């Protein structure tokens, strides 16, 4: 598939895909050159780009991704640094999850309060006496 189709399938821009290739996140396993020198991307490119997006969504930088992929692609032995990085990312994601859980709790309370204002103003007033957050 050509880069435009790949961009549509992954919801990335062609510029972003080319940048990832330039940075070494996509390589010859992810595309082949046609006779006219155009890149012809394969399913592995889709998988790699989706993986990049997932890692970025949890706060991984491109430099971190490059290191992860280099170790993974080279099938290098597990190092203590890689183990510590994984543990650190897990802690970071769990911290973010806790923050999101708190935000969801506050939003649910706000929704309940707004509904009470419409349907039961006395209940809404009572809810303000001891809200679950500051």
Question: How would you characterize the overall build of this protein?
Answer:
- The chain contains six helices and two strands.
- Helix content is 70%, strand content 4%.
- It has a two-stranded antiparallel sheet.
- The protein has helices spanning 3-10, 14-22, 43-57, 62-74, 80-119, 121-129, and strands spanning 31-33, 39-41.
- Strand 1 (31-33) and strand 2 (39-41) form a beta hairpin.
- It is mainly alpha-helical.
Can you list the strand order of the major beta sheet? 1-2
Unreliable residue stretches: none
The name of the CATH architecture of the largest domain is Orthogonal Bundle
Q: How many strand segments?
A: 2
**Structural class estimated from helices and strands:** mainly alpha
How is the main sheet built?
2 strands, antiparallel
The span between the termini is 53 Å
Compute the number of structural domains. 2
Write the layout of secondary structure elements.
Blueprint lengths: L2 H8 L3 H9 L8 E3 L5 E3 L1 H15 L4 H13 L5 H40 L1 H9 L5
Antiparallel strand pairs: 1-2
Helix pairs in contact: 5-6
Which descriptors apply to this entry?
134 residues, mainly alpha, 2 domains, two-stranded antiparallel sheet, 2 strands
What would a concise description of this structure say?
This protein is mostly helical and 134 residues long.
